[in-house]
Design goal:
19% strand, 15 helices, globular, 411 residues, four-stranded parallel β-sheet, seven-stranded parallel β-sheet, alpha/beta, Aldehyde Dehydrogenase, Chain A, domain 2
Length: 411
């Protein structure tokens, strides 16, 4: 593995200094070839899906694994959207002149070599490669064994395109050994890799964080909340809650806990119960919730659980302060929302909830690079350093200072 990583590292200067025109041409070529060879991808994906079902993989993981023509079209669109974005490298972030007549500019540069470790979701392969090419970074991919045939089909198409553009294939490298020992070894190559991004379940993220010698950008969990304020429009609150939970229950932006103000609970809870149960969502509530609607009792652990399936915990809170305290105590700093028509309380919530994405009158399922206008995301970070929230091309850059003078010396 070390030789493969080193070969990737040695292409760093090539991708970093590609012109914007060359990078965009490469991206559009990848998009065209994914379209041209889509049947190869779908054929290999069917093998992965068959094996996943045979091995009794969880339904949520199988759902993330499946590719179809719509998914392929979305992959192509993401690559083209990324190509159309403003060039992220070489931007002057700020500039000034000092008293010693130094002209200083702060300019964006690529991070260098980025490694992404991910589970299921073979579309991540093309998204991440596109983001890294656009931002001038080398990308090392380590996918899960459940998607090995799909990932290999996609990277083969990417390598074919890279070769057509007379560039070294190691600017995008897929590690085909998918076992845990391989992951552990990858995390030791701090001489060659600048950043690790784990995308997957809590077990993977904990393993990477505990074993990495390389800086890690991660999200802890997607334990997302929606708080229904006493001033909320009832129909809006129902629509947002339904979308936040049921649009896709298995994604990290799905709502897992619903907080309801005591002053609106008697009116709101029977209505949301009816709509959730129509969609086969299992509801678990606190004691106060159970006094209004007939559902299962929530345990203490329910309010700390990222379900990623059709289960929702419900808690009645006395006011906005209790809602904020609950979210900041039990949440994962991913995505949380308030439904409210009270400007003062809404502003308080937006300012005091300590999450990477905080929403007013919106579904938490919008936490996504494509939805934010980034084309795609390399991951969704709940870190405080280097980035927070969906990470697009600008989050795959760092900066350096360029200092110019006419012979200045320091006294």
């Amino acid at each position: 593995m070390k030789d493969t990583i080193k070969q990737a590292f040695e292409t760093k200067k090539i991708i970093a200094h590609l012109s914007p025109k060359a990078k965009n041409s490469l991206l559009l070529g990848i998009a065209d070839n994914i379209d041209k060879y889509r049947q190869d991808i779908l054929s290999k994906n069917s093998i992965d899906v068959h094996e996943a079902k045979k091995n009794n993989l969880q339904n949520a993981s199988i759902d993330r694994l499946i590719l179809d023509d719509k998914t392929i079209n979305d992959m192509i669109k993401s690559i083209k959207d990324i190509a159309s974005l403003q060039e992220p490298v070489g931007k002057i972030l700020s500039g000034w002149r000092t008293k010693d007549n130094l002209n200083i500019q702060k300019i964006t540069i690529p991070i260098g070599v980025v490694a992404v470790i991910y589970e299921s979701r073979p579309n991540v392969t093309s998204d991440v490669v596109a983001l890294c090419i656009k931002s001038g970074n080398v990308i090392i991919l380590k996918g899960g064994k459940e998607a090995k045939h799909s990932n290999k089909a996609i990277i083969d198409i990417i390598h074919k395109t890279i070769k057509q553009h007379n560039l070294p294939k190691h600017i995008a490298t897929l590690l085909e050994n998918c076992d845990k020992q391989c992951t552990k070894q990858l995390l030791t190559f701090d001489d060659y890799i600048d950043m690790i991004v784990p995308r997957g379940g809590q077990e993977l993220i904990k393993f990477v964080s505990s074993n990495s010698c390389i800086p890690v950008v991660k999200h802890d969990r997607g334990l997302c909340h929606t708080y229904i304020h006493k001033s909320a429009d009832i129909q809006m609150a129902i629509d947002i809650s339904i979308n936040a939970k049921t649009r896709r229950v298995e994604i990290c932006g799905a709502m897992e806990s619903l907080l309801v103000d005591k002053d609106i609970a008697e009116k709101f809870l029977p209505l949301i119960q009816e709509q959730m149960e129509k969609r086969e969502i299992v509801l678990r509530g606190c004691d106060k919730t159970l006094s209004i609607i007939n559902i299962d009792k929530a345990s203490k652990e329910d309010f700390d659980t990222e379900y990623l399936c059709g289960i929702l915990s419900i808690k009645i809170v006395s006011d906005i302060d209790e809602a904020i305290l609950h979210i900041n105590t039990h949440g994962s700093q991913h995505s949380d929302a308030i439904v409210s028509s009270d400007y003062t309380d809404a502003t308080k919530f937006l300012n005091e909830v300590d999450s990477s994405c905080v929403y007013l009158n919106s579904s938490t399922q919008f936490t996504d690079g494509a939805q934010f206008g980034f084309g795609a995301e390399i991951g969704i970070s709940t870190n405080r350093l280097h980035s927070r929230g969906p990470m697009g091309i600008n989050d795959l850059t760092t900066y350096k200072y360029i200092i110019k003078s006419n012979g200045a010396t320091r006294k």
